[in-house]
Amino acid sequence: MMCLYMTLFISQVLGMTNILNAAEILAVSPIPGTSHWNVMSSVLEILMDRGHKITVVSAFPRKIPHENYTNIDISNLVHISVAEPWEKVIGVFQPPVSCLHFLNDIHQKICQIIYSLPEFQRILSTKRFDVVITELLGSRCDLYLGNYLNIPQIAIVSSQMLTWYQESFDNPANPSYITPLHISYPKSETFIHRLLSTINYLTINISFKYYDNRATEIGRMFFGENKPDAETLLRNVSIVFLNTHSSYDLPKPLANNFKEIGGIHLKPLKPLPNDLQKIIDEAEHGVIYFNLGSVTRMHDLPTNIQNGFKEGFAELPQKVLWKYESDTPMTGQPKNVFTRKWLPQYDIIRHPNVKLFISHGGNSGVIEAISAGIPVLGFPLFFDQPRNLELFKYWGSGLLLDYKNFTKQIFLEKVKEIINNHKFKKNAMELSRKFHDRPISPQDTVVYWTEYVMRHNGAHHLKSNAINTLWYQYFLIDILGTIVIILFITISIFFFIKKKCF
Ligand SMILES: *[C@@H]1O[C@H](CO)[C@@H](O)[C@H](O)[C@H]1NC(C)=O
Ligand SMILES: *[C@@H]1O[C@H](CO)[C@@H](O)[C@H](O)[C@H]1NC(C)=O
Ligand SMILES: *[C@@H]1O[C@H](CO)[C@@H](O)[C@H](O)[C@H]1NC(C)=O
C-alpha cells in the first residue's frame, strides 16, 4: 500500500515537474522604454534559465539568440521613448493626469499594432501556451490574451503599484495613509497632505476609467464581440509582480496575490572598463556619478540648469562621471568632468570611491542606489520620480534639487552637504542592509509564483473576495442603511407607544 502511494506520489511530482520544466510562456512588453524592459527581460531570463520556453513581443531583441527564446520584434513599429525634448518631459509627462493620458494612449496604440501583426496572430492560433505575462501600465488592452488562450495571466508593474489599478485588486490604497504614486511626500503628515492625496487618488482613478474604456473596444475588435469587458479581465489576473520593496518604500498592506520583486534586475559585479576603472581609482577626493536616465536628453536641459551643473562641478574637488548622450562634445566641459554616452551604472556606484549619485529617480536606478548603499542627490522630473527620491530624504540618505529654482549655489550646497556629512553614507548603508535582508530572493520569488500559478490553474484562490463585491456592498452602505432604518423604526415605535401610554 505504502509502495503504491509512493509510486503515485513520485509520478505526480514527476508529472508536475515535467510540465513545469518546459512551460511555454508568452510575454508581451508593450511599452518600449528601457526601464520597463529592464524588469520584464529580467523576469523572462530567470524563467528561461529555469528551463521554460519564452515567446515575447518586444522592441528589444535579445543580443545573443537562444534556442528557447523567440522574440517578435516590434522596434520598427513603435517609437522608443528615449531622448524626449524637455518641453515634452515637463509639459506632457509631468502633470499626473496628462502623463496617464499619454501612457494610456500609447499603450492602446501598441496593443492594436501587436494584435494586428500577422506573425503574432499566427503564433496565437498555432502555438500552445501555459501562461501569459504582460506589463500593467497605461491600459488594460493586453489582458485579452489570457482570456483568448484560456490560460492564467501574470502582470508585472515595473514601479510601485499604480494608483489606478489598486482598487480592482482590492489592494488597500486608502489615501488617508497610503500616498498615491504621483504624490511626492511618502508619508501623509498633515491635513493638506491627506487632502492632496485624496484629490490625486480620485482624479487619477476617474480619469483612468474614462480614458481606458477603449480597452474593451480594442479587445472585442480583435477577439470577438462576446468577450468580457477589460475590468473583468483585470480582476482575473493571477499574480502581480511589483518592482519595489517594503524595506525602503514605506510598508503598506499588500493583496495576497501581490509579490514584491524589487531588485530583480540587479546583476553581479562585473569589472569596469579600464579607462573608467582608472578614473575612479585615481580620484583622490572620490567620484560623483551623474545620470538623468534615458528619457531626458542632458543637452536639452534648459541652459541655466546645464551651466549650473557644469560650473558647480568645476568648483568641486571630486571627479565627475556624466552620462551625456549628445554626438557633439559638451561646450565648456570642466577638466574634472568625464562624459560617456553610456556608463555601467550599477557597477560604477558599487565602487567604494564613488561618493554620490545624482539621479532623476527612475525606479531601476533608485533600486540600484539602495542596493549599493550610495547617497543620492535627486533631480526629479515626472511620474514616480519625485516620490522615489523623497524616500532617500525620508531615510536620511539623500537630498533633492528642484528644477524650477535650480541655481549653482543650491546645487553646490547640497552636494557638499551629502559628501561631507557622514550621516548620509551611514543611512544609505543601513538602507542597503535592510533591502538585502529577505527570506527569499526576487529571482526565486518570480520562479516560485509563476510556477505556482501554473500548478494551480491560475491560483485564483489567493484573491480577495472584495473583487466580487459591488461598491455599496464593499463600503457596507446597504448594511448601514438597513441599521439606520431599523433604528429609526424602533425609536419611532418607542415614542409612539410612550405617547399612547402616558
Ligand atoms: C531549452 O529548453 C529545454 C527544455 O526545458 C532544455 O532541455 C534545454 O537545455 C534548453 N536549452 C538551453 C540552451 O538552455
Ligand atoms: C525652491 O527651492 C527650495 C529649496 O530647495 C524649495 O523649498 C522651494 O519649494 C523651491 N521653490 C519653488 C518655487 O519651487
Ligand atoms: C480567468 O483565468 C483563467 C485562467 O486562470 C482562464 O481560464 C479564464 O478564462 C479567465 N477568465 C476570464 C473571464 O477571462
Bound molecule kinds, no repeats: 2-acetamido-2-deoxy-beta-D-glucopyranose
Termini distance?
Answer: 81 Å
How many extended strands? 13
Which fold name is given in CATH as the topology of the largest domain? Rossmann fold
Q: So, CATH architecture of the largest domain?
A: 3-Layer(aba) Sandwich
Based on CA atoms alone, the radius of gyration comes out at: 26 Å
What overall form do the CA principal axes indicate? globular
Weakly predicted, low-confidence segments: 1-18
If you average the pLDDT, what whole number results?
Answer: 92
Give a quick account of the main beta sheet: strands, pairing sense, barrel closure.
Answer: 7 strands, parallel
In spatial order, strands of the major sheet run 3-2-1-4-5-6-7
Salient structural properties:
single chain, 502 residues, alpha/beta, Rossmann fold, six-stranded parallel β-sheet, 19 helices, 12% strand, globular, binds 2-acetamido-2-deoxy-beta-D-glucopyranose
Note down, in words, how this protein is organized:
- The chain has 502 residues and is of the alpha/beta class.
- It is globular.
- It folds into 3 domains: 23-237, Rossmann fold, CATH 3.40.50; 274-436, Glycogen Phosphorylase B (Rossmann fold, 3-Layer(aba) Sandwich); 468-497.
- The protein starts with a helix and ends with a helix.
- Helix 4 packs parallel to helix 7 (191-211), helix 11 crosses helix 15 and helix 13 (363-372) crosses helix 16 (422-436).
- The model is unreliable at 1-18 (pLDDT under 50).
- The chain contains 19 helices and 13 strands.
- The protein has helices at residues 2-21, 34-49, 86-93, 96-115, 118-126, 144-149, 191-211, 214-223, 230-235, 274-282, 303-314, 345-349, 363-372, 385-394, 408-420, 422-436, 442-455, 471-474, 477-501, and strands at residues 24-28, 53-58, 69-73, 131-135, 153-157, 239-242, 258-260, 287-291, 319-323, 337-340, 354-359, 376-378, 398-400.
- The relative contact order is 0.11.
- The structure holds 2-acetamido-2-deoxy-beta-D-glucopyranose (NAG) (3 copies).
- Residues 21-22, 51, 67-68 line the site of one 2-acetamido-2-deoxy-beta-D-glucopyranose.
